[in-house]
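Quick start: read one record
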Amino acid sequence: MPDVEEGTRKQLLRHQFLAGLPATVSKQLCATGEIDDLDKMVHRVKLLFTLDHLKRAATVSSPTTSSDVALLQQQVVILTEQIYGCVLTIESLTREW
């Protein structure tokens, strides 16, 4: 396509690039509006693929069990109580001033 203008050529290249991506990735790119610059698109796609790969690896390698969830819930309760205790301490100290 030597007779095509540079802007049109870049637009066609970006369109072909989007068409070759998985639908979820191309939708994410279009939704964020990052489809004006091919270099930015390539960078963003690399990040999306990396995040997707990490998400899959975490899902495959660390199945959660009900005991894990219960332990985490217990830890959240303990931390919440500690934070509440700190807030009460801070309130009592500020009243003394």
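The two ends are 78 Å apart (CA to CA).
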